[in-house]
Design goal:
With 289 residues, the protein is of the alpha/beta class. Helix content is 39%, strand content 19%. The strands form 2 sheets. Strands 3-4-6-5-7-8-9-10 form an 8-stranded mixed sheet, sandwiched between helices. A two-stranded antiparallel sheet has the order 1-2. The longest helix is centred in the middle third of the chain and has 20 residues. It is globular, with a radius of gyration of 17 Å. The model has no long low-confidence stretch (mean pLDDT 96).
């Protein structure tokens, strides 16, 4: 079990959030910041941010989303609807006892956080999203050829069982390739860090839980469209410009849905921007929060 991140002690605990148990790590004291990871990561996604935020005087909570690492893994695709995962974070924030709080989220965590701010606005004081487009411009660009091609990989996760087999082959070669393909720093995801990821992927049921996010979002997309509404709180979108998954256009022309938004672009970073450019991301987070 990891007890320190770059010299900063972290505490592990499990919280009951509605119908699921969430594992989390906690560090520091002060105003609460909840960090929400994406695919194919877990709380360790934030290894560069946790020490910086603790040093800046924040109490950092970094959960493993349902289906990931040692958090609960409910059965069935329906259990992985974005609305259910957003409810997990709302329940977690309520149990922590500081609502509203700051939310920082990446990739699938960013999708969850956009909808958390729409469905549970009382939970979120400030919102920071890293390389996860708002659902309105993403849906718009998905009708265009370039974004459609970039998103086509999601079809690989739709069949039953086969995606899990594919992810496990050759010591999780597909997942390791996913991290390294989008990495823009030569020291990203070094062998020691990769072994930590492998331990999370080996957890019973984790691969199915991870794949079920892709299955659920296609199956219940109409439900999400029905709950889209403006987000009025202060928000910041941090964007690694070399993202191979999302086009730049997914970050443009949606100000009516997030009127109090600032966008910070990092030219040399890719999809995993918090690992590619940790110093810049940390400086932006500390200034904004």
């Amino acid at each position: 079990m990891i007890t320190q991140v770059n010299g900063v002690p972290v505490r592990h605990r499990v919280v009951e959030a509605g119908d699921v148990s969430l594992h989390l790590v906690e560090a520091g004291s002060g105003p609460v910041v909840i960090l929400i990871h994406g695919f194919p990561e877990f709380w360790y996604s934030w290894r560069h941010q946790i020490p910086a935020l603790v040093d800046a005087g924040f109490r950092v909570i970094a959960p493993d989303l349902r289906g990931y690492n040692t958090s609960g893994k409910p059965h069935g695709v329906e259990a992985y609807k974005i609305s259910a995962v957003a409810q997990d974070i709302a329940s977690l924030a309520a149990q922590i006892g500081e609502v509203p709080c700051a939310i920082v989220a990446h990739d699938w965590g960013g999708v969850v956080a956009w909808f958390l701010a729409m469905l549970h606005p009382q939970v979120v004081r400030k919102l920071v999203i890293l390389n996860a487009p708002h659902p309105v411009p993403f849906a718009r660009e998905l009708r265009r050829r370039e974004q459609k091609i970039r998103s086509s990989y999601q079809l690989l996760f739709q069949p039953p069982r086969l995606p899990e087999i594919g992810m496990r082959l050759f010591r999780f070669a597909m997942l390791r390739w996913t991290l390294r393909r989008a990495a823009r720093r030569p020291d990203n995801f070094d062998p020691a860090e990769m072994e930590i990821y492998l331990d999370a992927w080996r957890q019973q049921g984790a691969l199915t839980g991870m794949a079920n996010y892709y299955r659920a979002v296609r199956r219940y997309r109409r439900e999400l469209r029905a709950v889209i509404r403006p987000i009025e709180i202060p928000a910041m979108l941090i964007w690694g410009e070399k993202d191979p998954i999302f086009t730049r256009a997914t970050t443009e022309n949606f100000s009516e849905y997030v009127p109090n938004l600032r966008i910070e672009r990092i030219a040399e970073a890719g999809h995993f921007v918090q690992s590619d450019a940790p110093e810049k991301v940390n400086a932006l987070l500390k200034a904004f929060l």
